[in-house]
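Priority: medium. Attachment 1 of 2:
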């Protein structure tokens, strides 16, 4: 009989948002045509050498690269095996059939992959790839909130440390936050640490949401006035905003959703002129798939996501550093919160 973990795995398999499992990647020489819109020709020879080295190392190490939508095109389109939003990466991390997972993203994503694959080696190429949301809250903060609101369940955004997840009842991502909140069948939840995500979800549900004061340092920079200026400067532009943006920004946008939901919107609606209010590489990556659409490009860089490069992915596979380890007493409780999220339809 299948174990509970196997049942959970088969339940969630294939329900990720926008990941694109890729066949064995071709050599660097064949890849340039795909990313030529986004990668200057002068940079390509350096990238090509790194890409070929990474392809070889992936084979010798039996490794896969999971890349978030905010990774640069030469990583996202050229060396990654699985790409997507935080939810897709978490889901797909469970189906990986390799010994080594390199997480081209930020540290909490690598921790999530490790939680779901405790027996595999999970590598993050730069330990400094953090997240302002993950830094905004500690396990002690969660315990204090629980004491202040006895009996109210804690929904924790995946953009947190494993230690914070361990204090939580269930995790969520921007792709499933509303469904997770409503799955609990209660009239009030604590949702942390992103204040803006919590307020944006509160606007879509009858469940009362108690929030924390964390912000994404990238998305908090967008303003409602910026959206109004964009509409004036680019008549007809369609505005998509990530739900980590302030509610006033989301209110001015035509659509709000996770990075995968934005990508799906673009594929479905094909707006002739559009702007993605999110991290800069997102537009580059979506534009590679839709070269005929006109992307207006005000964006903000995530300094943490940008710490990952082809060079440190290669180094990571050469040296097998930095392997993510999670304290077992934390890991078991954190895993439960992530698995509960993955079981929500
Ligand atoms: P997504 O889950 O929408 O990919 O967002 C992750 C993230 O870090 C956004 O800033
Ligand atoms: Fe964290 Fe914001 Fe960077 Fe995403 S974009 S990793 S939420 S700092």
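Attachment 2 of 2:
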């Amino acid at each position: 009989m299948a174990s509970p973990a196997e049942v959970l795995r088969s339940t969630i398999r294939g329900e990720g948002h926008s990941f694109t499992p890729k066949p064995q990647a071709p050599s660097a020489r064949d890849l340039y045509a795909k990313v030529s819109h986004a990668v200057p020709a002068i940079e390509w020879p350096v990238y090509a050498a790194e890409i070929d080295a990474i392809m070889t190392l992936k084979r010798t190490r039996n490794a896969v690269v999971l890349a978030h939508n905010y990774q640069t095109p030469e990583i996202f389109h050229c060396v990654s095996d699985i790409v997507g939003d935080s939810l897709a990466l978490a889901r797909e991390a469970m189906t990986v059939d390799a010994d080594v997972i390199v997480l081209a993203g930020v540290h909490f994503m690598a921790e999530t992959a490790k939680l779901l694959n405790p027996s595999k080696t999970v590598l993050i190429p730069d330990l400094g790839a953090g997240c302002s949301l993950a830094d905004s809250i500690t396990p002690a903060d969660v315990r204090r909130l629980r004491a202040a609101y006895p009996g109210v369940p804690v929904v924790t955004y995946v953009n947190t440390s494993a230690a914070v997840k361990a204090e939580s009842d269930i995790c969520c991502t921007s792709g499933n936050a509303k469904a997770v909140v409503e799955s609990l069948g209660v009239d009030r939840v604590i949702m942390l640490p992103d204040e803006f995500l919590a307020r944006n979800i509160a606007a879509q549900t009858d469940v009362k949401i108690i929030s924390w004061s964390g912000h994404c340092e990238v998305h908090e920079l967008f303003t409602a006035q910026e959206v109004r200026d964009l509409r004036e400067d680019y008549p007809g532009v369609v505005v998509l905003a990530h739900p980590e943006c302030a509610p006033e920004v989301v209110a001015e946008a035509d659509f709000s959703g996770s990075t995968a939901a934005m990508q799906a919107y673009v594929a479905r609606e094909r707006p002739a002129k559009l702007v993605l209010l999110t991290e800069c590489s997102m537009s580059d990556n979506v534009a590679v798939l839709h070269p005929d659409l006109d992307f207006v490009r005000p964006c903000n860089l995530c300094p943490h996501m940008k710490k990952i490069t082809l060079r440190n992915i290669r180094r990571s596979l050469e040296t097998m550093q930095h392997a993510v380890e999670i304290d077992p007493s934390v890991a078991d409780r954190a895993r439960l919160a992530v698995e509960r999220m993955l079981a929500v339809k």
